[in-house]
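Give me the fold.
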Amino acid sequence: MPAARMSHFGIPLFLCSAVFATSCHAQASPPGMSPKVLTMLQQQVGMDDHLPNDKNPSGLHIQFSKIGESNEEAGHFAIYRAYVPGAPKDQTYVRAIWKIGADPEFMPGDVYLNSQGLMMTKMPRPDQEYKAIVDAEDEVEFSFPAARGEPVRVLLTTPDGKLVIPGTIVPFPIQGRERQCKLEARLALPEAAAVLIYADGLAPNSDIPYQSFSEGQSRAGTLHTNAHGHAVRIDLPYVAGKDSGNLKVAIATKECSASVEIPWGKGSYKPF
């Protein structure tokens, strides 16, 4: 999505009810964003919010527990073990990784779960069945290099594709907090051509004033929260005539305020 064809633009996102849905209700695509890209962003949100759908009717999701970091020649890696509470355990699974700017990639090897939902490389032995941690060689570990605000999405699926369980991890999040309010910015496209803004801890079923600023341009809008005080918005930070810059977004209510800032454009992607 070339910068020259995009402008600073915000889109309130009305969440669809299915992962990879193609018929979500959202505002018309802004200049520079094709319906295909907008659908992909809706897919990302569906995974992040683990919304129930026909392939995951219970809204199951992968939970990650950080177990370390390492500095390698390829970069700085955050390392996680993973759990899937409530998922069927007497079942073989396969996994896929979806990073921004790339297609989902299936990983080699079968995956198994014990009674704690711990993701394992082999069928759990009786002494491992109820453990939250097992020998390192028996756990499935995820190791991610990432930039600040970059999400990595994981799919756990049965071989027949009838059950698909998503999970999202942001190794180095960009967050702003005050009291119960939280605002988070996540990269949605390479070089922050689109940014997902997540808000939590707000008044339920409310319209919250929202302001974004990018290289001298500002936009005012509204976040529409759900029954849990959660809202999502897409922001396109590019400004005509600019190759790079910073996007700042802010919310403010009587109870609290929060803001986040994320770089965009040429040279903005810098793994942590």
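Residues 3-54+172-265 form one domain.
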